[in-house]
Amino acid sequence: MACGIVVEKDVEQKTELVKNLISNARIVLTLDAKESEFRADLTKTDFKILDQLLKNPREKIDSISKSTVLSTKTITRTIEKFEKNPAIQFTIIYDPRKLEKFVAFAVLAMVQNDIKKIKKI
């Protein structure tokens, strides 16, 4: 599991705390919240749902409802809240070994001059 955390003070101490609280976690992003323009305002209910989604991102709402003993309506509203909250980010992680006939690559370029003079690849 990979996660990102936002902290206000004692970044190193809180990062270690998260590592100890969440087994098998790899922190991929740490943000200092000193100058943050948003508030997460996550509730215990939000964390219950987040926990289920972190365990299985494809889990159906009905299944999350059974696991958390929360109504499907609450879960749906919470997920909609997550989608609007800049503190919650969604991403896709793929395993290229399992994708047939697909070659993953990236082209990185640093442009120092007029971008219009660059030819298409």
Chart the SSEs and their pairings.
Blueprint: E1 2-7, H1 11-21, E2 26-32, H2 44-55, H3 61-68, H4 72-84
Parallel strand pairs: 1-2
Descriptive labels:
two-stranded parallel sheet, Arc Repressor Mutant, subunit A, alpha+beta, 2 strands, 121 residues, 4 helices, 36% helix, extended
Describe the structure.
There is one protein chain. With 121 residues, the protein is α+β, with helices and mostly antiparallel strands. It is 36% helix and 11% strand. The protein is built from 4 helices and 2 strands; from the N terminus they run E-H-E-H-H-H. It has helices at residues 11-21, 44-55, 61-68, 72-84; strands at 2-7, 26-32. The protein has a two-stranded parallel sheet. The longest helix has 13 residues, at 72-84. InterPro entries: WH-like_DNA-bd_sf (IPR036388), WH_DNA-bd_sf (IPR036390). It holds the Pfam family HTH_24. This is Transcriptional regulator AsnC family.
Order of SSEs: EHEHHH
* Mean pLDDT over the residues: 73
Give a count of the beta strands, DSSP E runs of length 2 or more. Answer: 2
Biggest β-sheet, characterized?
2 strands, parallel
Strand order of the largest sheet: 1-2
| CATH class membership | Mainly Alpha
Low-confidence stretches: none
What CATH architecture label applies? Orthogonal Bundle
Q: Which descriptor suits the 3D outline?
A: extended
Tally of separate domains: 1
Q: Examine the coordinates and then state which fold CATH places here, giving the name of the CATH topology.
A: Arc Repressor Mutant, subunit A
| C-alpha end-to-end distance | 36 Å
Number of helices: 4
Which structural class fits the helix and strand makeup?
alpha+beta
- Superfamily (CATH H level) name: Winged helix-like DNA-binding domain superfamily/Winged helix DNA-binding domain
* C-alpha-based Rg, rounded: 19 Å
